[in-house]
Amino acid sequence: MHTRRDFLQKLAAPLVALPFVLKQNEDDKMYDGPVLRVAIMGLGSYGTRVADAMQSCTKAKLVGVISGTPSKITAWQTKYNIPEKNCYNYENFDNIKDNPDIDAVYIITPNALHKEEAIRVAKAGKHVICEKPMALNAKEGQEMVSACKKANVKLLVGYRMHFEPKTLEIIRMRKDGELGKIMFFQGLTGFRAGNPDQWRLNKQLAGGGSLMDIGIYSINGARYMVGEEPVWVTAQETKTDPVKFKEGVDETILFQLGFPSGAMASCLSTYNMNNLDRFFLNAEKGFAEMQPSTGYGPIKARTNKGELTHTHVTHQTVQMDEMADIILNGKQPIVPVDGEEGLKDLKIIDAIYEAVRSGKKTKLQL
Ligand code: NAD
Predict the structure, then answer these.
(1) Residue 57 and residue 28: Cα distance in Å, rounded?
(2) 146 near 126, Cβ under 8 Å?
(3) Which of 158, 169, 162, 188 is nearest to 311 (CA)?
(4) Same domain for 175 and 112?
(5) Which phi-psi region, left, alpha or beta, contains residue 141 (left: φ > 0; alpha: ψ -120 to 50)?
(6) Of 184, 220, 311, 333, most Cβ neighbours within 10 A?
(7) How many distinct structural domains can be found in the chain?
(8) What's the 195 CA to ligand 1 centre distance in angstroms?
(9) Prediction pTM value
(10) Residue 295 is part of which domain span?
(11) Measured from the CA of 159, which atom of ligand 1 is nearest?
């Protein structure tokens, strides 16, 4: 049955779509600066999301792929118009050093592979963009930072929330003193991990469990919401399914962070609960609340002054345009996304696992 609403929706659809298309074209026409030419390594689910989002970028362009699966390479070549000369596999991608048409490689493979891959990319003289967690621990992270420094290439971590408008507005309010002294942050991040055979539940490939994958959003979020670096951590682990979540793969971890000002954070990281994506910041003069807070969006946020109404943007499109600006033009992001930033989160992850093992407060020096 056709209703009046159906009719109005059909009528309105082209009118709604048109301004966006025009704006997109206008933006494309307006930008005639340098473009970051990117190859994606790891053509899995997140790699595909990034590739799709990059089709709307103005400053970054997907030009190459690195994959161990020839059929995926062929499919991506067709879908994204990628020339044969920009296609590599895991054995030969060091040859990328002789390819002047690729500026950066975006590593989107399982966590345990990031370190070696990043170091090889750096040695090939290309900038590295690496997914979170940047590595399995701080020692590995430090090796990556040093290798990129030595090779004189940039190392950036895929912290897409660092470019998200509502997140940035809360950070602005905090920096401008509108919230007053920050007292407390709560970060709740988790989802139910389905397939027990996935690499995320394999210690060798994931390096841990929920903390490496989703808990890192609460860790990183605590730092950019509070605006300080934590000096201590306490943590507790609970496991309801030791068959699915084997030794070294954490199912649920609660952790607390203490900051120099006296502010504290209390966070939950889990692979055993759905609909867990919430940030809450309490301060002397106000508050900020986000739910969802770190998903692909739209992010919903409100403060003591009311709901934030910033337009939703595809996180990965903005991230890649901003990263192009950082790499090509030396732009300074509001919240850092460099290797040092990734390393800080890895130091906190190390400390949380240590606190779970010891049951004691672990001191941190970031
Ligand atoms: P995925 O399993 O969908 O994709 C991983 C890809 O790596 C696959 O194409 C797989 O073939 C390839 N791969 C290469 N070597 C492999 C090996 N030895 N074992 C298994 N796979 C191998 O995983 P994903 O969800 O795309 O995650 C990839 C990375 O991206 C992870 O580090 C993850 O934390 C990160 N990620 C980030 C976000 C974000 O929002 N920033 C979201 C999802 C995933």
Answers:
(1) 9
(2) no
(3) 169
(4) no
(5) alpha
(6) 220
(7) 2
(8) 15
(9) 0.93
(10) 161-312+338-363
(11) 41
CA of residue 46 to ligand 1 center, whole Å? 6
Q: Say if residues 139 and 162 touch (Cβ distance below 8 Å).
A: no
| Tokens of residue 70, six digits | 């020839």
Residues touching ligand 1 (Cβ under 6 Å) are 42-47, 68, 108-111, 113, 131-132, 158, 160, 199, 205, 213
Tokens of 326: 């950082």
pLDDT in tens, the chain (366 residues): 333 333 333 333 333 333 333 334 444 458 889 999 999 999 999 999 999 999 999 999 999 999 999 999 999 999 999 999 999 999 999 999 999 999 999 999 999 999 999 999 999 999 999 999 999 999 999 999 999 999 999 999 999 999 999 999 999 999 999 999 999 999 999 999 999 999 999 999 999 999 999 999 999 999 999 999 999 999 999 999 999 999 999 999 999 999 999 999 999 999 999 999 999 999 999 999 999 999 999 999 999 999 999 999 999 999 999 999 999 999 999 999 999 999 999 999 999 999 999 999 999 999
- Count of Cβ atoms closer than 10 Å to residue 58 Cβ: 18
Angle CA 268–272–275, to nearest 5: 70
Nearest atom in ligand 1 to the alpha carbon of residue 47 is 26
Mutation test residue for ligand 1: of 41, 65, 131, 299, the one with most atoms within 8 Å of CB: 131
Asked if residues 349 and 208 have their Cβ atoms less than 8 Å apart, the reply is yes
- Provide the CATH number for the domain around residue 13: 3.40.50.720
Specify whether 174 is located in the same domain as 249: yes
Report which protein residue has its CA nearest ligand 1's atom 9. 44
Residue owning the nearest CA to atom 12 of ligand 1: 42
* Ligand 1 atom having least distance to the Cα of 111: 32
- Report the separation in Å between the CA atom of 291 and the middle of ligand 1, taken as the mean of its atom positions: 25
Which residues are catalytically annotated?
A: 132, 217
